[in-house]
Amino acid sequence: MKLRVLGCSGGIGSGAQTTAMLLDDDVLIDAGTGVGNLTIEEMVKIDHILVTHAHLDHVAFIPFLVDTVGSMRARSITIHAIPATLEILQKHLFNWYLWPDFTKIPDVATPYMRYEALALDQTICLKQRKITPLPANHTIPAVGYQLDSGQASLVFTGDTTTNDALWMAVNKIENLKYLIIESAFCNQRRDIAQRSRHYCPSLLAEDLKKLERTAEIFITHLKPGEAEITMQQISECIGNYHPRQLENNLLLEF
After folding, report:
1. Helix (H) or strand (E) segment spanning residue 66
2. How many independent structural domains does the chain possess?
3. With 0-12 CB in 10 A as exposed, 13-18 as middle and 19+ as buried, what is 110?
4. Three-state DSSP state, 54
5. Rounded CA gap, 185 and 206, in Å?
6. Which domain range does residue 77 map to?
7. Angle at CA 132, nearest 5°, toward 247 and 89?
8. Residue 239 has pLDDT above 90, yes or no
9. What is the pLDDT of residue 52?
10. Residue 131 and residue 105: Cα distance in Å, rounded?
C-alpha cells in the first residue's frame, strides 16, 4: 500500500492545502483542498472516499470532485463514514442548497455518489486492504483510521485531542509502522486547543506517553504561520519520539 499526502495543513495559502491523502490510486482519506492537486485523470480513478469527520477542511472538495468526474465514471463514488458524519453531509452539504444531492444525479438508480456507513472498530476490506475506524475525540462525531496492508499498518488519527480510547486501540496493532497525528495549535494556544478538541504540543506529549508501540510519527494539521514554532515545541516536549512534520507529496509505503 502507498499513501500520498495531497494536503496536510490546518489552513491554506502559500502552498498549504487542507487534509487529503490518496491511498494507492483509488481511495481518498478525507477530501480537503489538497484534492485540487490531482489531475482529472487521477480523480477519475477514485472509487472510495473515507471521511474522518464533516468539518469543511476535510470534506470541502468532495462536491467538486464528484461534479467534475461523476459523468466520466462507470460506477458511483462511495463515501464511507460513520452514520453521524453521513447525516451531516446529507443535511448540510448535499442538500440542494449548498450543493446538489449527487446520490440522485443523474438518477437514483445510477447516481454519481453513494453513502456507506462505517462502524467504530469494525474493519472493512477494499481490494484486500483492511481499513478500521478508530476512536477520536473532537467537537463533532469523528474517527481516525487504521490502514493495514497485512505487512504493516498506518494510523491516521484525524482531528482529535486527549483520547484514551485511541491509544487502547493503537496499542493492539502489532504491525504498526506509521502514526500520523495532529497538533493544530502551539502551546500558547493550549486553551483554544482544549476548547476545540485539538492537540497542542504539551497535550500531545502527555498523550504519547500512552503509546506502547514503536512507530514513525508524523505531525499534521499545523496552522499556517505557526508550523515552525509548533514543531519546535514538539521537539522540546517529545523529542525522544523524533516526530517529523508531514509534508505535501510525501509517499509512505507499508
Report:
1. helix 62-69
2. 1
3. exposed
4. coil
5. 15
6. 2-253
7. 75
8. no
9. 99
10. 28
Percent of the chain exceeding pLDDT 90 equals: 99
* Full-model pTM: 0.97
The pLDDT, as a whole number, for residue 174 is: 97
Question: What are the contacts of 63-67 at 24+ separation with CB within 8 A?
Answer: 63/93, 63/94, 63/98, 63/99, 63/102, 64/35, 64/36, 65/31, 65/35, 66/102, 66/112, 66/113, 67/99, 67/100, 67/102
Q: Is 31 helix (H, G, I), strand (E, B) or coil?
A: strand
For residue 90, how many C-alpha atoms fall within 13 Å in the half-sphere facing its CB? 16
pLDDT digits (tens, 9 = 90+) for 166-204: 999 999 999 999 999 999 999 999 999 999 999 999 999
- Strands (E) across the chain are located at 2-7, 20-23, 27-31, 48-50, 77-81, 113-117, 124-126, 129-135, 143-148, 153-156, 176-182, 216-220, 244-245, 251-253
235: confidence class by pLDDT, cuts 50, 70, 90? very high
Query: What would the pLDDT profile of 61-105 be if each residue is shown by its tens digit?
Result: 999 999 999 999 999 999 999 999 999 999 999 999 999 999 999
The 10 Å Cβ neighbour count of residue 248 is 16
With helix as H, strand as E and coil as C, how does 108-171 read?
Answer: CCCCCEEEEECCCCCCEEECCEEEEEEECCCCCCCEEEEEECCCCEEEECCCCCCCHHHHHHHC
CB 166 within 8 A of CB 144: yes
Residue 230 cell numbers, joined: 509548533
* Domain at 241, CATH number: 3.60.15.10
Cell numbers at 106, concatenated? 443523474
| Cell matching residue 162 | 486527549
